[in-house]
Amino acid sequence: MKLSPNELAIMFLSLGILLFTAKLFGEIAKKYGQPSVLGEILAGIILGPTVLGFFAPSVTDFLFPAEGLRKVVMDSIATISIVLFLLVAGMEADIGTIRKQGKQVFSIGISGIVVPFAMGFAVTYFFPGLFGMEAGSEALFFALFIATALAISALPVIAKTLMDLNYYKSELGMLIVASAIFNDIVGWMMFAAVLSLAGKGDVNHMPIYVTITLTLLFTFFMITVMRRLIHKILPWVQAHFSWPEGILAFSLALTMIGAAATEMIGIHAIFGAFLVGLALGDTHHFREKTRTIIEQFVSAFFAPLFFASIGLNVNFVANFDFTITAVFLVIGTIGKVVGCSAAARFSGEGKRESLAIGFAMNARGAMEIILGLVALNFGLINEKVFVALVILAISTSMLSGPAMKKLLKLKKSFNFRDFLEPKAFVFIDQPVDKYKAIDILSDSLSICTGEHFRTIRNAVAERESIMPTGLKNGVAIPHARLKHLKKPVIATGITTHGIDFGSTDGHPAHCIFLILTPADDNIIQLEILAEIARTFKESGFDSKTVKPVNYTEFLSMIKSNGGA
Amino acid sequence: MKLSPNELAIMFLSLGILLFTAKLFGEIAKKYGQPSVLGEILAGIILGPTVLGFFAPSVTDFLFPAEGLRKVVMDSIATISIVLFLLVAGMEADIGTIRKQGKQVFSIGISGIVVPFAMGFAVTYFFPGLFGMEAGSEALFFALFIATALAISALPVIAKTLMDLNYYKSELGMLIVASAIFNDIVGWMMFAAVLSLAGKGDVNHMPIYVTITLTLLFTFFMITVMRRLIHKILPWVQAHFSWPEGILAFSLALTMIGAAATEMIGIHAIFGAFLVGLALGDTHHFREKTRTIIEQFVSAFFAPLFFASIGLNVNFVANFDFTITAVFLVIGTIGKVVGCSAAARFSGEGKRESLAIGFAMNARGAMEIILGLVALNFGLINEKVFVALVILAISTSMLSGPAMKKLLKLKKSFNFRDFLEPKAFVFIDQPVDKYKAIDILSDSLSICTGEHFRTIRNAVAERESIMPTGLKNGVAIPHARLKHLKKPVIATGITTHGIDFGSTDGHPAHCIFLILTPADDNIIQLEILAEIARTFKESGFDSKTVKPVNYTEFLSMIKSNGGA
Fold first, then answer.
1. Which of A263, B70, B261, B562 could form a disulfide with B535 if both were Cys (CB 3.0 to 4.6 A apart)?
2. Which residues of chain B lie closer than 8 angstroms to A242, CB-CB?
3. Which helix (H) or strand (E) holds B220?
4. pLDDT given for residue B556 in this prediction
5. How far is CA B207 from CA B29, B86, B99, B265, in A?
6. A509-527 pLDDT, tens per residue?
7. How far apart are CA A24 and CA A36, in angstroms?
8. Which one is predicted more confidently, B541 or B390?
């Protein structure tokens, strides 16, 4: 048995198309401030039976067959992908953060699990008919699973939302992150317990109590003995193997073996990978560079492949059930928000802050979807429930950012690049002095903003004459505040000649940002100036590097230099 | 059809074991100055039918079955791995380097292909019986393939050897690299042509001339239109997608599609990936960080899995044929060395230099093995010939470094870490002055080297008194040259107290390297001092970072900080 050259060719084609589409939609989702997993799943739904399969079933069958060897291979790749994704999730969950925040984390975490769990269990156990279930032992496992699914939070999406809101490093932000880590770890252990109870993944037909005992023992072993062992071994690997290659291979091999162990116990491979991630992420010997390589490769290759493949396997229109979805959305959100907010309020947080914690923790993100998929594959839930869980995951994630923004009166964090005006991107060909350069840039901004040229030019020139605005590394930032202006706007001038802006390092400027900000916002100007200074602290522009041929190349250049 | 949980568990286990063993043996090979691919293949041979399968066939059958679904999945993973490896190989082959070196590269490259090709073709075509072949059309394709296989060079291993010898950036080094790139590209195109001629990978049963035409068209398209297109598109992707995630996903998706295209044409998926790599590596918009992430992940995960899997599929003892191996070794080496050296000598290089070029280009490395495996899978060669090719690949790679070293009278490049004496690693607990610190470190080196304490101490203290040796970032490098000393030796002192060594940035030293070098080698001292200064230029030691608990942790720390 082997894939024919023809099948191999189509496999590569389908992988390429899947990856490309997933990433494209993921990036579009990001542009609109949504989690990228939303776009990635959407890509799969479009390429799978729901959309493309509906209009052109032969194309879907050709690229993503529902049977046969290629299906087996694609499924295996998806499984390896999700295992590596959970490794990254585990790496990000720093156990130390929980310890630091102590009791408050514990009460928010526990209450945020118990309340939605109890509500979810009660509804699904006492109204099994609602989900097409009959009462009995299956209904018990089903209720336990749904309860767990509603109790879970998703650290990655919560952390990402907080970063977008520039709130990650605040005290409340750290409290939320710590609670999410706690919730994540406990939630996954609960899910593992449910799976071992249900005995669904049982390979060796062990009695239930053996599976549960093994699960607990393995978890305990990984977060105590293994964690310390890794802390001891890592320096040795780093000292004697090539770096970072050696440590990368070691971590990935360990992940595979951890995945094998939990799969053999009868729970899913992802748990082992998550625990390996936890143990790895906890030691300071695991360096930033190693972490970055794994994280970036996984989120560029494996994660999109996995999330898109979900849409390939399930028809999201045919399996959409309004009642189930509505019940999950209502119970899930109320349970989680009430559970977390109440605990936060009791522990002394303000009203608005408590509610914000609740909505932040309500985000289920990728974790809910993974958990749903495992349950679906084990036959614990049907496709209708799975679709409802995916919708719950996505909508709670989409809700959490706006809710926090409103409750805490936050502004979305910005990047100075957001204010660059593509139409005010100018090549200054002639050797000119700085006031002439300000003239040129003011003129281009006058056209874009509708402000008078003289108003802009005079304000900027006046400010410039008080103190020169040349930074290090060939960058200058002439600027002014203007009345009537609604939002900041930046013109960019590029010149090979070099213009003296009185910079601190004595070098002439080759890249001039002319920055206008609203007169009534006295913070944003400082923030933009500081961010530009930070971006070009290490490297900047000289007569050799000034070679972007258009605005897009320029943007690409400063983005990949700045590194964010 | 799907993998059962049990099969999935064993698959993860086998992946983990394969990766771990491959990387371990790869690192051991590196320690002994050999290419890591040697160790990786060896790991597969040990885990496969040759060794483990001989002593414990049931274990091999359990972990790496020769039939069934798991075999299909493992084969597919190996194919994806090799495709990604060729992407990296393509990225490394910079077309621009060839242009710069011009005519000399062209003559060495052509002669280095034509001579071994002609010799290989003649022997295999006129003595097909030697390889168990009968005369006829099969023998023609066989001869063409063998000729191509002998004509190929392996850029990655050649580049690596030159770097190890500290000779990569020399004029001769660049000439060799450029010739290897030329050879690589032409060699792969020739192999693609042989495959399309033989029609072995032909999916759609196209006439031979169609396959050949498509191969040429596709190659031409990729290195002209596609190369320029990528140069144009990359800035757009970088400007509008998240960085470097977006560009990573884009590159990988493109690789999959390129692989699919060549597989469909009837040559192998690896050619498409190689061409995508060539096109990507050529534009300066493809940044160093993106390159590093792909290269590191591929060489830590995919490459070891692929090379180890070779040993799983072939019995290297049963299929070893002395005659075939000897013929390949002799013809391959003579053809390549003569071909390249003669051209180099004609183009004006010295005798020794010309021979060195010949032996450098003789290294076949991973490329030969990949090419052999493709031919084996297509039924163009049998397992005996494959084993002979693998031995040719490994032994020519092992030969090239020592040959160059001898011919060009080079020394292996060193790292100051190589001279650190583990037994002279001291924690200085008391607050002491710098002369007392020198006393302590001199004492520990006296025990290790057998030199008198006073000799060491006086020489170092005298040097120190002339000009203080404190560097930036909490590092100090007291040093002296000693007669009788055979090789450099370095003691390390770590202290939380901070000792004033009169450093350039005014900070006290927390890490003191006491360096002794032989009196008759006036270069090595300067090189060691410069290297230490370079390593700790960006970051170093202060009272907070001084927390390594033993020598291994210390080594791990400076290695992962230094980044090499």
1. B562
2. 27, 30
3. helix B208-221
4. 83
5. 45, 27, 36, 11
6. 999 999 999 988 878 888 8
7. 10
8. B390
For chain A, positions 263-282, list CB contacts with chain B under 8 A.
263-264, 266, 269
Average confidence (pLDDT) over B312-331: 92
With beta carbons under 8 A apart, name residues in chain A contacting B253. 16-17, 19-20, 23
Give the lowest-confidence range in A146-155, A311-320, A532-541: A532-541
CA distance B480 to B466: 12
Q: Does residue A538 surpass a pLDDT of 90?
A: no
Q: Is the dihedral of CA A312, A314, A319, A322 positive or negative?
A: negative
DSSP structural state of residue A381: S
Tokens of A146: 């749904």
Tokens of A206: 């062990």
Buried b vs exposed e over A289-323: b needs ≥16 C-beta within 10 Å? Answer: bbbbbbbbbbbbbbbbbbbbbbbbbbbbeebebee
Closest CA to B453 of B441, B462, B443, B461: B443
pLDDT tens, position by position, B429-456: 888 998 999 999 999 988 888 888 999 9
Which position has the token pair 């080079």?
Answer: B410
Q: Which of residues 129-158 of B touch A (CB under 8 A)?
A: none
Closest CA to B109 of B223, B188, B163: B188
The Cα of A222 is separated from the nearest Cα of chain B by a number of Å equal to 17
- Put simply, the chain B residues between 200 and 219 with a CB less than 8 A from any chain A CB are 201-204
Q: What is d(CA A379, CA A361) in angstroms, rounded to the nearest whole number?
A: 28
Contacts 24+ apart (CB under 8 A), A42-46: A42/A311, A43/A18, A43/A304, A43/A308, A43/A311, A44/A18, A44/A307, A44/A308, A44/A309, A44/A310, A44/A311, A44/A312, A45/A311, A45/A316, A46/A21, A46/A311
Q: Is-contact A476 A533, C-beta < 8 A?
A: no
Q: How many whole angstroms separate alpha carbon A368 and alpha carbon B261?
A: 37
- Flag whether the pTM goes above 0.90: no
Of B12, B243, B559, the CB nearest to A260: B12
- Higher pLDDT among residues B138 and A324, named by residue: A324
Q: How many CB atoms lie within 10 A of CB B407?
A: 19
φ, ψ for residue A479, nearest 5 deg: -155, 165
Q: How far is it, in rounded angstroms, from Cα B137 to Cα B160?
A: 39
pLDDT at A563 over 50: no
B300 touches A: beta carbon within 8 Å: yes
Instruction: Count the Cβ atoms, other than its own, within 10 Å of residue B104.
Output: 18
At residue A520, φ and ψ (nearest 5 deg) are: -85, -5
Burial class of residue A467, CB neighbours in 10 A (0-12, 13-18, 19+): exposed
The CA R_g of chain A, rounded to the nearest whole Å, is 27
Residue A244: cis peptide before it, omega within 30 degrees of 0: yes
Q: Which residues of B touch A15 (CB under 8 A)?
A: 80, 256
Q: Which residues pair with B425 in a beta bridge?
A: B492
Position A135 confidence tier, pLDDT thresholds 50, 70, 90: low
DSSP B112-179: HHHHHHHHHHHHHHH-GGGGTPPSSHHHHHHHHHHHHHHH---HHHHHHHHHHTT-TTSHHHHHHHHH
- State the pLDDT confidence band at A564, using cuts at 50, 70 and 90: very low
Q: Which of B11, B22, B1 is nearest to B76 (CA)?
A: B11
> DSSP letters along A299-315, please?
IIIIHHHHHHHHHHHS-
Which residues of chain B lie closer than 8 angstroms to A548, CB-CB? 235
The rounded distance, in Å, linking the Cα atoms of B489 and B475 is 17
Closest CA to A416 of A489, A519, A495: A489
Does residue B515 contact residue B490 with C-beta atoms inside 8 Å? yes
Q: What is the DSSP letter of A204?
A: S
